Amino acid sequence: MRAHEAGALHAEGYGGPPQWLPYPRNVNDLLPMLWPSSVRRDERGRLQVAGVDAVTLAAQFGTPAYVVDEDDFRARARGFRDAMNGAFSHGADVYYAGKAFLCTAVATWIAQEGLCLDVCSGGELAVAMRAGVPGARVGLHGNNKSAAEIEAALIYGVGRLVLDSFDEIDRVAAIAASLGVVAPVMIRVTTGVEAHTHEFIATAHEDQKFGFSLAGGQAYQAAERVLAESGAMRLLGFHSHIGSQIFDTAGFEVAARRVLDLHGRVEKENGVRLPELDLGGGFGIAYTSEHHPRTPEQLAGDMAAIVARECAAQDVAVPRVSIEPGRAIAGPSTFTLYAVGTVKEVELGGGASRAYVSVDGGMSDNVRTALYAADYSCTMAGRVSDAAPMLSRVVGKHCESGDIVVMDEYLPADVRPGDLIAVPGTGAYCRALSSQYNHVPRPPVIAVRDGVARVIVRRETIEDILALDAL
Ligand SMILES: *Cc1c(COP(=O)(O)O)cnc(C)c1O
Description:
Elements: E1 40-41, E2 47-49, E3 52-53, H1 54-61, E4 65-69, H2 70-87, E5 92-97, H3 104-112, E6 116-119, H4 122-131, E7 138-140, H5 147-156, E8 160-163, H6 166-179, E9 183-190, E10 193-197, E11 199-202, E12 212-213, H7 218-228, E13 233-239, E14 243-246, H8 249-270, E15 276-278, H9 296-314, E16 320-323, H10 327-330, E17 334-349, E18 352-359, H11 368-372, E19 379-380, E20 389-395, E21 404-412, E22 420-424, E23 445-449, E24 452-457, H12 462-466
Parallel strand pairs: 4-23, 5-6, 5-16, 6-7, 7-8, 8-9, 9-12, 9-13, 10-14, 13-15, 15-16, 18-20
Antiparallel strand pairs: 1-2, 2-3, 4-17, 10-11, 17-18, 17-22, 19-22, 20-21, 23-24
Helix pairs in contact: 2-9, 3-4, 5-6, 8-9
The structure holds pyridoxal-5'-phosphate.
């Protein structure tokens, strides 16, 4: 079976809890692996992050709000940096994939922690520039970069452009020549490996929009084209990214083997040295108790072993390796804080029922549940309760029945309007994929560190939304 981006689709849909959701021993307990490291319950039973409790955060900043534990975010970034540098004796680079979540403060944290930054549009590049991330530490991705985006990146002096098509090779060569610069480039390779969550598929061909195919020989041809443009482009090496929310390292292994085979052939047959290799991102995180992510040390160790083995087998020098984690840095550092507006018990037949708990946000601030049938968990954040656990579904305020935030979770049976609910693991692809659906203004992002909370992205207002409308 092909797994979904964020796990197998719910097979039954109605009825009891999914297999992975155990009946809780204590409905107030937190599962530490789902939360930022500083999160705990204080003596009043309130959820607390970096010393600030959820009731205080809600009173000060309103709900819904994304709350990020700044030290946790920074520690995850450093964790990848240190693990990669530990595993690769000649050093390695970690590019934070800004598309997971980017704002000026986050770009600053990434630069301060010694990481590089991956951007995939002129907008993301503008954030990197505003935060002062040095150009040499920025990489530009995208399958359809505009001439303006390419020009802005070259003028800023980005460390790499990742090329995605023959049209783009011509475009970058022309723009670099007109600017009188040599563009440092990588070639994105489609390895025929597609990985999602627990499974991967290795094929000869891959029917998707990104990259140059390996099997069809296009990746090799792209390298020859770039090498022929040596006055305008410098080929750093190849890039491979195989999917997202991956737990199974076998997919990375097959992809790395395939791309290193190409790397070795291009080096030998063209008499060149390719100094770099990028193995992409996609490292899975825990959204619920069903997920068991590997540590950065395990991932980096596996990668170093594969790269060393393949380079030795082909008798080529080990290139400088980079990776691009997005979700694994941003995701677990953040939770979304909502307020409950209504609680409704819905009969499912056969005596079973489910509580529908409506919160003041929804698919506009977290579309992953609706888009990918992603699983999340949640807890009451403003108090603890002695009430029995009740199977619940946390839904939003939007005009869609698919507007679900948490598909299945046990909440105490006395959950009521005014209660606070916190959903962990919302730092990646939530704010980044947010919308103004139903003209619901987007929540702020609040960073908490050492007992101090501050706004790093302010709440959108109705005025912000109306400001775009012409009269
Ligand atoms: C999305 C993406 C990433 C980051 O993926 P995560 O699952 O967030 O780690 C890295 N590289 C490329 C090219 C991407 O498209």
